[in-house]
């Protein structure tokens, strides 16, 4: 499912029989009322996602291209894709993340340029951080964490990866258990740091740490001297009240 909040428009996709989509536009005066049946605009395509406020892209696998459409379901643009693509995902306004069996690319629809390219296990889910600076690419047994330009690190898991979400505000995860019930689980953010260290990625853990002593140690471990020096200065200022030039 893909959603355009400014237009109250929803795309619902299915992989059945080669792929199709339905586009619903919810009138703002009907929000929360739940009455009436909405008319849907329909079409064929392997994937369909919003790429702008009032534009969405549909994957045409047979011609390896995307069709950009307006909310009337009319084609306004066609773009050939830079690799044999079997699925497309959102990658910020005007951009697509295109997936093949063992590779993903970030593709700028307007300029028709590849902004990032990455070899990766077959990706099932794509989860962007709120600021769209970081993305998690989830495969069956791997988590690939990358920047918006697809600079990356990979974490391999023995358990099957089913979904993921970025921690924005702290120590609570909301999820569905196997019985379909909502659960709120408290976690310790330090567990994430220890996990990343254990997997050999102190440079990634550094992005999630605010404690200066921990940042200093992680910076040394990852060879980031600039961050280590900055943390050392703040630690000295905090403990002695004396600045360090």
From TrEMBL:
GO molecular-function terms, A-Z: structural molecule activity
Coiled coil: none
Protein name according to UniProt: COPA/B second beta-propeller domain-containing protein
Matches recorded under Pfam families: B-prop_COPA_B_2nd
Gene Ontology BP annotations: intracellular protein transport; vesicle-mediated transport
A single Gene Ontology CC term: membrane coat
Domain COPA/B second beta-propeller: 1-168
